[in-house]
Design goal:
Elements lengths: L1 H7 L20 E4 L5 H11 L14 E6 L2 H6 L10 H18 L8 E7 L6 E6 L2 E8 L29 E11 L1 H6 L6 H12 L20 H58 L7 H59 L1 H16 L15
Antiparallel strand pairs: 1-3, 2-4, 3-4, 5-6
């Protein structure tokens, strides 16, 4: 309790939370500050409320609550890191604190609240609140009764507990002589296992809806992840990514090795062609070999080069023919283009407004999408 109080009220010299910026700590705002720390405030509150506490090894001495949103939400309300808190942000947290007292406050007051502070020295503003779960009623079983008002019993003589329409045991809450600290009864009065979901529903209806916030997933089994758990998960994800990168690198190396082997094989296959090329160059120099083997290679090289040149000539001849045809088409259009030129000059001089109108019409028609052309189907294709 002392360590938690030292961190929430910033009295500790060192904090486990690395997000705390001590230079912005003076900006923190208190709805209620403990008197001498949480431990001292706890003893004082228990004494003032005259509350009892049955201390066990796993007893719950106090509970906490944090209310916040994301950074973008507070920035929309005008919050800026390191500056004074805007009115809209304070109004939001005032509503949050009123809601908290309504839900967990002793008879709607802050008498059982140990500490309530708005932290503005971390990444995102949030209300952090600690309280004692005090109850002044206790849960009592309700038994079935007969027409005479007597408690009904089973064959073994044990009293029969009353059930509701869902088959669950019925309880009633009766006043206590003095309040007591009991987390199970505290949550039981608020719906037991449904208490947290009920609180989320009511917070949405009373606070969130006024700020355009959405209700979280109803019935979600998601659990809160601490910062340290989140950091661990992040590190594990980074290690997994590194392992994936390693596997990818090994695959790339293997592909590169395969490519090198393929290249070497191709070069090996090209060696005979290189010999033919060398023989062809030797023949072009005028040195005729006396060796029949070299002469045969020279002939093959000359034949290969002749075929390549023949293909190249065919391509050039076809390109020349295409260029000649395009030139003839352009020459045939010259008289027509001259007439269009004279007509456009005439319109530009004597009817420029009509020319502009024609341009607009042409542009509009150009932008109109053409209807799809339906393909004709032959009767035998059906």
């Amino acid at each position: 309790m002392g360590k938690i109080g030292g961190e929430t009220e910033r009295t500790s010299k060192r904090h486990r939370n690395e997000d705390i910026d001590s230079e912005r700590t003076p900006l923190n705002l208190y709805f209620k500050k403990s008197d001498g720390g949480l431990t001292a405030q706890w003893k004082k509150t228990m004494q003032e409320l005259n509350a009892t506490f049955r201390e066990k090894k796993k007893s719950v001495a106090f509970e906490g609550m944090i209310i916040t949103s994301d950074t973008a939400f507070f920035e929309r309300l005008g919050w800026k890191k390191g500056e004074e808190t805007p009115y809209a942000v304070m109004e939001y947290f005032n509503r949050c604190y009123e809601f908290a007292l309504q839900e967990i406050g002793y008879k709607g007051t802050d008498k059982n609240v140990l500490s309530a502070v708005i932290h503005l020295d971390e990444t995102t503003p949030h209300l952090q609140l600690y309280y004692i779960p005090i109850v002044d009623t206790t849960k009592k079983k309700v038994y079935e009764k007969d027409a005479d008002g007597k408690v009904m019993r089973n064959k073994k003589g044990s009293p029969i507990q009353k059930k509701d329409e869902r088959g669950k045991s019925v309880y009633e809450y009766i006043p206590l002589e003095q309040p007591k600290l009991c987390s199970s009864d505290f949550l039981g009065e608020r719906g037991g296992q449904l208490s947290y979901g009920n609180m989320q529903d009511e917070f949405y209806e009373q606070v969130s809806v006024h700020y355009g916030l959405e209700r979280g997933e109803v019935g979600s089994n998601k659990k809160h992840t601490t910062k340290y758990q989140w950091q661990k998960q992040k590190q594990e994800a980074e290690l997994a990514n590194l392992e994936a990168d390693k596997v990818h690198a090994e695959e790339v190396i293997e592909q590169a090795q395969t490519a090198v082997e393929t290249r070497d094989k191709a070069l090996e296959e090209l060696k005979p062609l290189q010999e033919y090329l060398d023989a062809f160059k030797e023949a072009m120099s005028g040195n005729l070999p006396l060796s029949p083997t070299k002469l045969r290679k020279m002939i093959i090289g000359l034949t290969t080069e002749y075929k390549r040149l023949e293909k190249e000539k065919l391509i050039k001849d076809k390109d020349s023919e295409n260029l000649f045809n395009l030139l003839r088409q352009a020459e045939r259009r010259i008289p027509e283009l001259e007439r269009h030129k004279e007509f456009l000059l005439f319109l530009s001089e004597y009817a420029p407004d009509k020319l502009e109108e024609a341009k607009r019409t042409a542009t509009e028609r150009k932008n109109v999408p053409k209807p799809p052309v339906k393909s004709s189907k032959n009767w035998w294709a059906k």
